[in-house]
Structures are given as C-alpha cells and as structure tokens.
C-alpha cells in the first residue's frame, strides 16, 4: 500500500494548532482603524479544515460579506471543545460547527446552539486497512477519531451500536491530519474521515468500510452549520441574518462557479491531485443545504444515540427540550424575506 505526503502538509497540528488559532482569534478581535470605520469585524472560528467548511472559504475569498458590512474572518480551531470555549469566553459569537458538540454544550449549561444546518447529514467515512472487509471486522481493532464526543466519534459509535460490534479500541487522534498520519504509519487500523481525506485514502488503497450513505441509513444527523450563543444572537440578530445570507451566497457560488471554487479549495486545502480536486468539488455541490433549516428529527436522533452510547446523561437529556439545541427563527426570517427564492431562482 503506497503512502503520500503531498496532502495538506501545510496544516498545523496538535496542541500548537489550538494555541495558534486562539491567538489569531484574539488578534481578530482588534480591528484596524480603517476597517473598523467601514466594516464590522466578525471572527468566525471553525472546525475542521475540509469540504464541510468550504462555503466560508469561498465567502472570504469572494469578499461576499463586505457588501453586508462585515469583515468576516474565519479562523481554524482544531478541537470543537476549544472552539466552544472560545465562544463561551466571548472571543467569538458565531462559529462553524455542529452535531454532538452542541448537544453536549447545552446539557452542560452552555448556550451555544444550532442556527443553521448547512450540512444536514453525515459526510464521514470509516477508512480502514485493505484487509478489513466488513464492519464486523473492526472487532479487536484500533480505530481513530479526532476527539471523544465529536462528530467523528459519533459516526464510529453509531456504526458500532448499529452493527452490535464489541471490542473496538477507540483512540483520540487530535484531528484529521493526525488521523491520516496515524493510519499511514499503521498506529491505527482505521479512522473516521471527512472529505477530502477519505478520497485521498481511497486512492492510496485503503478501504471505505462505511460511507456517508451507510451512516445515513442508521440515523439522521447534522454535521456542520452556523452555531451561535443564543443570548448574543438575540441581541445582534442583524449579524446573524447577514452571516446566514453570506453563507448561502457562497453555497450558490459553489454550485455555479466551478473554477473559482476549485481555486479556493486549492488555497485553503492544498490538493495537488486534479482528480482529488474534482471529486471534492462534486461532493461539495451535492451536500450543502440551500436554506439551512435545522431538522428536529436529526436532533432527536442524535440525543437518543448519545444517551445510548453514554455520551450524554439520560436524565438531563430527557429533561431538556429539543428546542434548547436550536433556533430556526433566523433562517425562517431570511426565507420569509424572499432572499432564498431570489438567490436560487
């Protein structure tokens, strides 16, 4: 099985990623004199670097938010726990995240909620060594996830519970680049990946044991979207609305401007393989929601799965209404204004 080192080698990894990202995020809060007069600075932490965050890369490079009066500054933070801590500390009011991290945050007393479901489905794959042929073969193996309680952990646990698989050692790798390196070195037998990492691993001869469509058959899910502190969103609805609109406009560009989108992908996710870029682009055109309403059924399924997998306290979960995890009012207001109809006509 061949290995490659030409995939996102420029990514920062490990603890240094979080430290540098938090410093950049704090710097982002200090606007220059000239920009502060014209545009509102909006630091936007996100995780992970990959196709699921593509609309914000496109929005930044196309300068979409400037016409909305916003200086939009996406900053990568590796772990969702660090991202949520940054929000709760006041370093950012909006972010790109979603899934189990939101539910855990609310159950622990936080007020970070789903504002949109930009990717209202699983996009993860379980990639394994070629000799592992079926899900049950993971028994007795070491499988990597980014962190416990994250989307990658949830995806793996959903498969283990769905197939009744026991005896799997789950290892925290820290992030997608670290998991990629770990699988390449053989320190794990498999790991959970999002695009474009899974496409790269397929080309290297690894087996896609479980695909996003396989996961979708087991449970509904929200992989990514815009999250916000509920208290801040209620006070600054205007910025929330503008962020929803700018993100939707970026998704429209992804759908309609292939060459510009590929250029953005190569800048933020340096992909040297033309076929890999094309696969990633096709995936992007198929997986983003045009409006972003949060499906309550997906939240219900996630809470249920988290309780079953001991990722959430059963009593706390049963006492918490689903509406505590999301607020569709902002997307609904954008829709009622006719913005989506005008954008997608």
Give the CA-based shape. globular
Which percent bin holds the helix content? 40-55%
Classified by CATH, the class of the largest domain is: Alpha Beta
Radius of gyration, whole Å:
19 Å
Poorly predicted runs are 1-18, 30-36
Provide structural commentary.
- The longest helix is centred in the C-terminal third of the chain and has 20 residues, at 237-256.
- With 345 residues, the chain is of the alpha/beta class.
- It has 2 domains: 14-121 and 222-344, 3-Layer(aba) Sandwich (D-Maltodextrin-Binding Protein, domain 2), CATH 3.40.190; 125-218, D-Maltodextrin-Binding Protein, domain 2 (3-Layer(aba) Sandwich).
- Helix 3 links the parallel strand 1 (40-46) and strand 2 (70-76).
- The chain has helices spanning 14-28, 33-38, 54-61, 80-88, 100-107, 151-163, 176-185, 197-203, 212-218, 230-235, 237-256, 258-268, 274-287, 296-308, 314-319, 329-336, 339-344, and strands at 40-46, 70-76, 94-97, 112-114, 125-128, 142-145, 169-172, 190-193, 207-210, 225-229.
- A 5-stranded mixed beta sheet has the order 7-6-8-5-9, with helices on both faces. A 3-stranded antiparallel beta sheet has the order 3-10-4, sandwiched between helices.
Main attributes of the structure:
D-Maltodextrin-Binding Protein, domain 2, 10 strands, 345 residues, three-stranded antiparallel β-sheet, alpha/beta, five-stranded mixed β-sheet, 2 domains, disordered N terminus
Itemize the secondary structure elements and their pairings.
Blueprint: H1 14-28, H2 33-38, E1 40-46, H3 54-61, E2 70-76, H4 80-88, E3 94-97, H5 100-107, E4 112-114, E5 125-128, E6 142-145, H6 151-163, E7 169-172, H7 176-185, E8 190-193, H8 197-203, E9 207-210, H9 212-218, E10 225-229, H10 230-235, H11 237-256, H12 258-268, H13 274-287, H14 296-308, H15 314-319, H16 329-336, H17 339-344
Helix pairs in contact: 3-11, 3-12, 11-16
């Amino acid at each position: 099985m061949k290995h490659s080192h030409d995939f996102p080698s420029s990514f920062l990894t490990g603890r240094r990623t979080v430290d540098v990202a938090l410093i950049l995020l704090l710097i982002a809060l200090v606007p220059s004199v000239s920009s502060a007069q014209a545009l509102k600075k909006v630091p936007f932490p996100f995780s992970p670097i990959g196709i699921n965050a593509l609309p914000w890369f496109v929005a930044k490079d196309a300068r979409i938010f400037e016409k909305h009066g916003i200086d939009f500054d996406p900053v990568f933070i590796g772990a969702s726990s660090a991202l949520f801590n940054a929000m709760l500390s006041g370093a950012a009011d909006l972010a790109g995240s979603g899934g189990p991290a939101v539910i855990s945050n609310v159950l622990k007393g936080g007020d970070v909620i789903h504002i949109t479901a930009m990717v209202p489905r699983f996009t993860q794959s379980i990639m394994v060594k070629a000799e592992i042929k079926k899900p049950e073969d993971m028994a007795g193996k070491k499988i990597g996830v980014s962190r416990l309680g994250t989307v990658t952990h949830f995806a793996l646990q959903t498969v283990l519970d769905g197939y009744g698989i026991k005896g799997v050692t789950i290892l925290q790798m820290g992030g997608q680049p670290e998991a990629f390196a770990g699988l390449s070195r053989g320190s794990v037998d498999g790991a959970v990946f999002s695009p474009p990492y899974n496409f790269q691993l397929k080309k290297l001869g690894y087996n896609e044991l479980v695909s996003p469509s396989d996961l979708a058959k087991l449970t509904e899910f929200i992989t990514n979207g815009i999250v916000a502190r509920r208290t801040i969103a209620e006070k600054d609805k205007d910025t929330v609305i503008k962020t929803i609109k700018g993100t939707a406009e970026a998704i429209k560009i992804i759908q309609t401007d292939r060459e510009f989108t590929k250029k953005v992908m190569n800048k933020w996710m340096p992909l040297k393989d033309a076929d890999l870029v094309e696969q990633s682009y096709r995936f992007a055109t198929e997986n983003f929601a045009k409006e972003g309403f949060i499906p309550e059924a997906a939240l219900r399924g996630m809470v249920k799965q988290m309780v079953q997998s001991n990722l959430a306290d059963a009593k706390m979960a049963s006492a918490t209404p689903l509406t505590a995890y999301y607020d569709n009012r902002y997307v609904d207001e954008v829709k009622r204004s006719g913005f989506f109809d005008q954008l997608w006509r």
